[in-house]
C-alpha cells in the first residue's frame, strides 16, 4: 500500500485502484482527538470513547481527503453477509449489514475495523464501488462472494472487471483461534492449503487467504493485498487482539 499524510492524518491507498474519480483510504490511528486508550483517530464509540471525539475524528479524516462529510454512508456491522445498495438514501449506524455497494456519484462508503479485513471493490467499467467488513464469521459465511453477487445483480458488473483489495487485518502468524473456529474453516476450505494451520498445538487462521479464495471463485481476477498486519503494525492500526477490549477502531472508506 502507499502511505500518505494530510493535515496530520495518515492514510494508506491501494496501488491498483487508480481512477482519479475514486477516492479511497484505509486510515491510520494518528491525527485525531481521542485520548488514551483510543489515541487518537478512533472511529467508533463501541469501546467507550465519546461521540464528540469520534465525530470530530471522522470529520477530520473526511476533510483531509477533501470528501464532503454529508456523503458518508455507514452501517452497524454485525459479522454477517448482508450487502446493501446505497442510492439516494442516507445510511448510518441503525442499519445492520457488512457490505455496502453503490453506483451513485457523490456517495462515500465508510466502515470501522480493528483486526477484521476491509474489502474494497471497484468496477471501472460500470463505475461501481463496494466496501465490506470481513471478520472470521463473515468470511466463513461468504461476505466477499455476497458483495460480488450484489454488484452483478444491481449494476451488471462482470467479476473479471472488478478490482478487489484486502486491507490491513490480523494475519495468520498472529491469529490463533480455537478448534470451534478452525473446524468450520477446515470443512469449508478442505481443498485449500494453509487457510488453517496447526502449529505446536495451536490453530492459526489466514483471513486474507480465505477472502482471496472467495473472491477468486466468484470470478475476480485482480486482487491486491495490503501486506500489513494490525498486530505487527499496531503502531499504525488498532487491534483488538493486540490491545484488548479498550482500544479504538480505524476507518476505511471509498467514495465516488
Structural description of this entry:
This protein is an alpha+beta fold and 256 residues long. 23% of the residues lie in helices and 27% in strands. It is globular, with a radius of gyration of 17 Å.
Tag the structure with descriptive keywords:
256 residues; alpha+beta; CNF1/YfiH-like putative cysteine hydrolases; 6-stranded mixed β-sheet; 6 helices; 23% helix
Percent range of helical residues: 10-25%
User: What is the string of SSEs from the N terminus onward?
Assistant: EEEHEEEEEEHHEEHEEHEHE
Task: Average the pLDDT over all residues and give the rounded result.
Answer: 95
CATH class: Alpha Beta
Annotated CATH architecture? 4-Layer Sandwich
Classify the fold: give the CATH topology: CNF1/YfiH-like putative cysteine hydrolases
- The overall strand count is 15
The total domain count is 1
Provide the CATH superfamily.
CNF1/YfiH-like putative cysteine hydrolases
- Tell me, briefly, the overall form: globular
Largest sheet: 6 strands, mixed
Tell me the strand percentage band.
Answer: 25-35%
C-alpha Rg, in Å?
17 Å
Q: End-to-end span in angstroms?
A: 20 Å
* Main β-sheet, spatial strand arrangement: 1-2-3-15-7-4
Low-confidence stretches: none
Tally of contiguous helical segments: 6
Helix and strand composition category: alpha+beta
